[in-house]
Amino acid sequence: MKSKTLIIIFAILIVILGINYFVEKQKGDRTLLADLVEADTSAITAIEIYPKSAGKKEIRFEKVGAEWMLVSGDRKFTTDDNSMKAMLREIQELKPSRLASSSEDKWEKYEVTDSLGTLVKMEVDGDVVADLIFGKFDYNQQTQKAASYVRLADKDKVYAVDGYLSMTFDRDRESFRDRSLIFADQLQWTRVTYSYPGDSSFVLQKDTTGHWRVDGLPVDSITCANYLASMARLGGTVFVDEFDPSQNTPSHSITFEGENMDVITLDAYPAEAVHGHVMVSSENPTSVMSGNNGLFDRVFVPKANFYLNPEAQILLQ
After folding, report:
1. Is 302 helix (H, G, I), strand (E, B) or coil?
2. Whole-model pTM above 0.85?
3. Which residues contact 279 (CB under 8 A, 6 or more apart)?
4. Where are the chain's structural domains?
5. Highest mean pLDDT range out of 4-13, 121-130, 306-315?
């Protein structure tokens, strides 16, 4: 009888221990999920990144109204909208899949030391709400999933998180910036004015039938359409931050006008040989771009570029 009682008591203890383990695991899982970033991304007002690949040089972003700006000294630059959305999405979804290590001796293995990892800080109105170190990532061939490793800067634990965090955060500052010169709807455009040196200026204008004309004469519709489409999604590759447009006079300028839109101006300024010209638009005045790699020539075309045919060319000369 006593043996039977002991068995029953032992079974009850097993059940209690099982329930306790399950409760603690659930509690631990909840703690795990809440252990990295507790702030809502919509409340974050500043982000600082110290990328490993960029020599730990500080990259700071500040929210100005509804826009994110990259801050460098006393200057602010527009950011690439897709890059910022990806970064905020990664932060919002930063949920550990498991605990990789609880001790400091594994930090180097997972590259989450101050020197080996990418440091990321997030602020809400000046208060740091998250201070993280993103380390290496592994790719599991069997599950075909990637795992990145993360540590809170003031904690010992290292967590595994799904995804490639380094591709989002471990980048140089230029990769976060907005490289666009013009991002518009060319279907709204009705008049494009080219202001060039000497007597080479001209006007490209849409007539009442919806056809484009250059200085009043018909244009090659395919050439014109392709050109305007490329202008509506125009961007550069090299920033020229040391050039100050306010202290210089443009040699070339293009003005885009149309229905239900603000006038867009694109200016080009003479520069040293390495750039030829630098370019800046009224749509994105903080991004001064080099005109090298043929960008200037593709944009500031002569009116002959739009000629309909050789006969029209003779008439326009």
Report:
1. coil
2. no
3. 181, 236, 266, 267, 268, 269, 288, 289, 290, 291, 295, 296, 299
4. 36-173, 180-316
5. 121-130
